[in-house]
Amino acid sequence: MKRILLGLLMLPSLFFAQTEKPNFVFLLVDDLGWGDFGCYGASFNETPNIDKLASEGMLFTNAYAACTVCSPSRAAILTGKYPARLQLTDWIDGHKYPYAKLKVPDWKMKMGPKEVLLPEALKEEGYNTAFLGKWHLMPEGQADFEEHYPTNHGFDVNIGGREWGAPKGPGKYFSPFDMPNLDNGKPGDFLTDKLTDAAVSILDTINKQNPFLLYFSYYTIHGPVMAPPELVKKYKQKAKTFTNSKNEYMDPARAGMVEKLDVSVGRLMAKLQDLGIDDNTVVILTGDNGGNYDETTNGLKGFKGFSHEGGTREPFLVKWPNKIKAGTVCKEKVMGTDFYPTMLDLAGLKLRKKQHMDGVSMLPLLTGKRKELKRKTLYWHYPHYHRTKPYGAILDGDWKLIEFFEEGNLELYNLKDDPFESNNLAATESSKAKSLLKKLKKWRVSVGAQMMEVNPNYDTTKAEKQLKKKKISKRKKLTEGFKI
C-alpha cells in the first residue's frame, strides 16, 4: 500500500535566490489541550521551546478549532471553509450508532477534488510544499484510495501521511512505523523524532529554492499514549512531589509525548536559525481539537468531542520576526478556517474568497493595526454521536449557545462572565437564546449543512448499551445529556 518513494527529488529544481515572500512552517498538533503548554498555564508538562516561541511572537487566548474532532478541523484549515459547508463533519470513518434516536447524514469521508487547498494556492504562486505526519483526509479501502494522498492535493512531498488517524504500525509510536516515505529506523526510535529528522532534512533542501510551506501535522499527542521509557520514568518521579494546584492532567506518558513535541519544535526553530531563514519564516503552532482527557488546566469545561470550550478552544502561537511584535497577546476570537486567507495575506497574495468562504485574514491582528475583526460570530455543526449527543453551536460576541438535536435542549453561556460554562442561562435569558438559535438555524441553511433525521431503527436499550460499551460512563459529569 505504500506509495513510491517521492523524497526530495519531487521538489522543483529551480535553485534561485529566495524571494521576499515569506516561508511558512505550519505545526499542527493532534489532540492538543488548552493546558498542555507552559505558556498556557501548564507546570507539570515541560515546554521550554514552545514557551520561547510564544515569547517571540503572538499568543492567542481565544483561538478555536472548527470542529471538536480531527478530520473536519483539518479540512477546515486546508480549505478555509466550515466543515458543515464541506459536508465533512466527523472524523473519518466516524463512530457507528445504528440504534441511536437520530440518523447520521450521508456525510463526505474525503476531500473533494474541486477544492483548491492551501498548498495548491501557494504552489500557484511559486511555493514549494511538503507534508509530514497525520493526513486522515482520505477513505480506507475504497477504489479511489490512491487519489487522496497529500501529493494529490498540492503537496510536493508526503512523509507519513495516509488514511490513519493514529499510528497503527507494528510499533505504534515506536519503530517500525509502516508509513509512506518514512524509514523505520532502528528499534526504539520514536515517531515524533523520526518525522522531525525528515522535516529538518527537507528544510536543508527546500529553503534553497522558492519560498516554501512546510506543513508538519504531528501524530502526537493522539493515542496510543506512549513515550520513551526514560521520559515516563522522569514524569512518574515528578508526579510524586508535584503540587497539582491547577488540577492539571498528570499522565507521565502523555507528558513525555508533550516533551518530545517540545524538543521537535526546538529543533525546527534551531534549523531555521542555522539556515539563516528564520527572519523570513512565519511559524504557526496550533491544534485540531481539545485534549483527549477529562481535566484541563485553567478549568475549561469539556475535552475532545465536546461542544464546550475544552473541546473547541486551542493554543495558537505565531511568530514572524520583525513583523509580529514579540511577547504580544491577542484576545480576539479566531478559528481554523482563518489560516488559509491569513497565510495568503501574509505572502501578499490575492485572496481567494470563493475558496476560503468562511475564513478571514488575521493579518490586521498580527501587525497590531487592529485588536478586533469585523466578524463577530463563529459556528459549529456536529450531526454525529461521539461523547456527546449531536449538536450545533454559535459563539456571537461573548454569548455561546449550544443546541442538542435530539430533544432541542439548549445551553447558553456568557463566556465573559462565565468562561468555564458553569451557569446555563438558557431559561433566564430566553430571548437571547431564541435570537441566537434563529441565527444558528439561518446559518445552517446558508452553508447547506446536512441535518439528521429520525432513525427508523431507534432502540433505546440497544443505544444505551452501546454507549456504555464506548466507555462514556467514565466521564459521567460531562456526558451532555446521555443517560448512562
How would you summarize what this structure contains?
The protein is of the alpha/beta class.
Helices and strands, with pairings:
Elements: E1 23-29, H1 48-55, E2 58-64, H2 70-79, H3 83-86, E3 102-103, H4 118-123, E4 128-133, E5 157-159, H5 191-206, E6 212-217, H6 229-241, H7 252-274, E7 281-287, H8 309-312, E8 313-319, E9 328-330, E10 334-335, H9 339-346, H10 363-367, E11 377-382, E12 391-396, E13 399-404, E14 410-414, H11 430-447, E15 453-454, H12 460-469
Parallel strand pairs: 1-6, 1-7, 2-9, 2-10, 4-5, 4-6
Antiparallel strand pairs: 2-8, 3-15, 7-8, 11-12, 12-13, 13-14
Q: And the CATH topology of the largest domain?
A: Alkaline Phosphatase, subunit A
Overall residue-averaged pLDDT value: 90
Let me know the largest β-sheet.
Answer: 9 strands, mixed
**β-strand amount:** 15-25%
| Low-pLDDT residue intervals, each spanning 5 or more residues | 1-18, 471-479
Written account of the structure:
The protein is of the alpha/beta class and 484 residues long. The chain has two domains: 355 residues, Alkaline Phosphatase, subunit A (3-Layer(aba) Sandwich), CATH 3.40.720.10; 98 residues, Arylsulfatase, C-terminal domain, CATH 3.30.1120. Strands 1, 2, 4, 5, 6, 7, 8, 9 and 10 form a nine-stranded mixed sheet that branches. The chain has a four-stranded antiparallel sheet with strand order 11-12-13-14, with helices on one face. A two-stranded antiparallel sheet has the order 3-15. A hairpin with a 2-residue loop joins strand 12 and strand 13. Helix 5 packs parallel to helix 7 and helix 6 crosses helix 7. It is globular, with a radius of gyration of 22 Å. The N terminus is likely disordered.
